[in-house]
Q: What sequence folds into this?
């Protein structure tokens, strides 16, 4: 059975056998990633326990497209970082002053790259990272990697090659020069270390004991992680909204020239057109607000943003709009936009946009925000919440 079938068996029938198969399949990966972060076998076991407890609690919300290796990798990284911080063990480790040299054996390469391997993987885009994890951490062929990612075998080969090149560049920037072949061999041979029987037994016992436990009696790392995830959903550009009613957010792409962002036409067209017309009277003020953003972004496109009261559908004037842009070469955030009398403001959009977060903050309303990412391969949509 594949990962999704096992997850469904566990979710729908509470099958301990199905979950144990998933645990056996991935405990080595989780334990190895944790051990590299905390550098302590006992603490790595605690992290692994927490990760699989989180998997058991979050499995119902997974989509069929989930790549379990990727989810477990990122969750392990997140949990391990909190474990180190909570116990005040982790300090910023200075990078070794590696002499520039060509590494010719996988053993030599591993000694140099292992301290920063997980950091390097974290720098990759999700698609590239999942390809590397499947190919080298799960020891899958290119064909199997392609099937897991839902792409062709040729595309999977190209993605793995591209990811290896990015990893090579990462390490080259830290004074370690090595070929793609040596890098691949080093990672494939050393990245996943088998967990001991004691670790497997300990993780299994903890998961079994906690799957029906209330949040208050969960292990500290699990409770802390669940709490951190809840807070992460409320954060945008460092700001936390004030809880109360609800806000409806409407997006409309106003493209001054054709770009890759795209537009949509559906049943909301009439509403969007009304919003665009309503902004005419206050557009000079909105344009003035956007000017400072455009100067920083070299923006040529504009997103028309409107905040609506969910109960009355009336625009919310004076709402603070926070914007976070991420491009391949820079990150920039701004929170000085404010909606006009109709609840509208204009948000500049740069050509090379890779990610966009737009959120609205207003006293008396719950903060709402929307995230668009280019790697999801979807155009900026109409959006109402």
A:
């Amino acid at each position: 059975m594949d990962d999704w079938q096992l997850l469904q068996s566990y979710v729908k029938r509470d099958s301990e056998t199905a979950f144990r198969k998933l645990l056996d399949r991935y405990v080595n990966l989780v334990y190895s990633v944790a051990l590299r972060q905390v550098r302590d076998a006992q603490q790595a076991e605690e992290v692994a326990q927490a990760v699989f407890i989180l998997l058991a609690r979050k499995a119902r919300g997974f989509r069929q497209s989930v790549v379990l290796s990727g989810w477990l990798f990122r969750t392990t990284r997140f949990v391990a970082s909190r474990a180190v911080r909570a116990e005040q063990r982790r300090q910023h480790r200075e990078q070794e002053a590696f002499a520039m040299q060509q590494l010719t054996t996988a053993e030599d390469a591993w000694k140099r790259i292992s301290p920063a391997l997980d950091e390097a993987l974290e720098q990759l885009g999700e698609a590239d990272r999942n390809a590397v994890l499947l190919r080298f951490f799960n020891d899958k062929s290119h064909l199997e990697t392609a099937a897991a990612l839902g792409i062709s075998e040729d595309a999977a080969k190209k993605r793995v090659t591209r990811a290896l090149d990015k990893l090579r560049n990462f390490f080259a920037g830290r004074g370690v020069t090595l070929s793609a072949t040596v890098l691949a061999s080093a990672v494939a041979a050393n990245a996943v270390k088998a967990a001991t029987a004691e670790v497997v037994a300990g993780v299994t016992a903890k998961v079994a004991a906690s799957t029906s436990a209330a949040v208050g009696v969960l292990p500290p790392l699990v409770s802390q992680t669940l709490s951190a995830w809840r807070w992460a959903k409320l954060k945008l550009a460092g700001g936390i909204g004030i809880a109360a009613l609800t806000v409806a957010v409407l997006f409309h792409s106003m493209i001054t020239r054709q770009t890759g962002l795209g537009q949509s036409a559906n049943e909301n067209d009439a509403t969007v057109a009304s919003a665009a017309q309503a902004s005419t009277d206050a557009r000079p003020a909105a344009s003035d607000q956007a000017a400072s953003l455009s100067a920083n972004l070299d923006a040529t496109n504009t997103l028309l943003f409107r905040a609506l009261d969910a109960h009355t559908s009336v625009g919310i004037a004076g709402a603070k709009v926070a914007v976070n842009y991420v491009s391949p070469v820079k990150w920039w955030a701004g929170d000085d936009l404010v909606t006009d009398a109709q609840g509208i403001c204009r948000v500049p959009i740069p050509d090379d946009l890779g990610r966009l977060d737009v959120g609205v903050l207003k006293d008396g309303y719950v903060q709402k925000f929307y995230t668009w990412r280019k790697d999801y391969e979807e155009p900026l949509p109409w959006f109402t919440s």
Summary: The chain has two domains: 3-232, 237-376. Residues 92-102, 234-286 have pLDDT under 50 and may be disordered. Residues 237-376 form one domain.
